[in-house]
């Protein structure tokens, strides 16, 4: 049988939500809790919004939300199934919105880590700084590079899991590899389904950022780091619950960030000025 290369869950957003359910909307509620805790205004940009669940959750909390993602398929799903926010297509490392600015930028589910190179990360932070009002917030949630780079390599035996959606059983086989030279966590995942569709092989990667390395990038771009910790968060064990305070350690497999843009807008020298897609 022919095996096609692609991304099953990105190509079919309804499967993404079935595979990674969030019935309590923990990710969106966690982000809203931090926005309130640190006094962010109502205008929020959700970067890497995916299916739109978290953007819609922030919208339901009373925010004026713009959800941005590179995947047109994800955005089409978001507009139908999670209405309320404005959804636009944008590249994470080179976006701009003309004169529109936001009180906060939210970047969840390791979306920031698709900036694989220093140049892409510089572009992301430069764009965030230009897009935020003076003193605006950046809230992010991601894998913790210190956890993966400071430990033995992931198991060589691929992990197998599965789920059933609308009568079709899906099975995945996932292998992880730490590319230490590039500081990337590389993933190869194969999907099969019992409906006769051809298998799918996915290849993806996330940048592995050390906490102090991330703090340095933020400081260079003029941000003040208000919180940088491993838990609790929406994808930690145990997960975040309302009333939980941000932690003070950064040893776990997740990393959570709150940073404030400069109160006064001043030019920041950059060897990689942001160019972007006008939504």
TrEMBL record:
EC number: 2.1.-.-
GO molecular function terms noted in the UniProt entry: methyltransferase activity
Methyltransferase domain location: 44-136
Keywords: Methyltransferase, Transferase
Entry superkingdom: Bacteria
Pfam families xref list: Methyltransf_25
Gene3D superfamilies: CAC2371-like domains, Vaccinia Virus protein VP39
Any one Gene Ontology BP term: methylation
Region called Disordered, residue ranges: 234-253
PANTHER family per UniProt: MALONYL-[ACYL-CARRIER PROTEIN] O-METHYLTRANSFERASE, METHYLTRANSFERASE
Protein name: Class I SAM-dependent methyltransferase
Organism phylogeny: Bacteria, Bacillati, Actinomycetota, Actinomycetes, Kitasatosporales
């Amino acid at each position: 049988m022919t095996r096609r290369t692609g991304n099953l869950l990105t190509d079919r957003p309804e499967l993404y939500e079935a595979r990674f359910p969030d019935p309590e909307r923990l990710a969106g509620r966690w982000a809203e809790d931090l926005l309130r805790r640190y006094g962010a205004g109502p205008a929020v940009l959700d970067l890497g919004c995916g299916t739109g669940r978290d953007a819609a959750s922030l919208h339901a909390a009373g925010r004026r939300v713009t959800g941005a993602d590179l995947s047109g398929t994800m955005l089409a799903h978001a507009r139908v199934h999670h209405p309320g926010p404005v959804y636009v297509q944008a590249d994470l490392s080179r976006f701009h919105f003309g004169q529109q600015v936001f009180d906060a930028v939210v970047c969840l589910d390791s979306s920031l880590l698709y900036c694989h190179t220093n140049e892409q990360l510089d572009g992301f932070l430069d764009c965030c700084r230009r897009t935020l009002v003076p003193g605006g917030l950046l809230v992010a949630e991601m894998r913790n590079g210190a956890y993966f780079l400071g430990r033995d390599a992931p198991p060589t035996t691929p992990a197998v899991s599965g789920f059933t959606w609308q009568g079709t059983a899906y099975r995945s086989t996932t292998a992880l590899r730490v590319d230490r030279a590039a500081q990337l966590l590389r993933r190869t995942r194969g999907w099969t389904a019992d409906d006769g569709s051809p298998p799918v092989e996915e290849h993806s990667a996330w940048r592995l950022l050390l906490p102090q390395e991330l703090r340095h990038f933020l400081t260079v771009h003029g941000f003040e780091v208000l919180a940088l910790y491993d838990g609790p968060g929406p994808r930690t064990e145990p997960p975040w619950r309302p009333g939980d305070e941000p932690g003070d350690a950064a040893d776990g497999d997740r990393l959570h960030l709150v940073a404030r843009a400069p109160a006064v807008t001043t030019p920041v020298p950059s060897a990689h000025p942001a160019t972007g897609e006008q939504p």
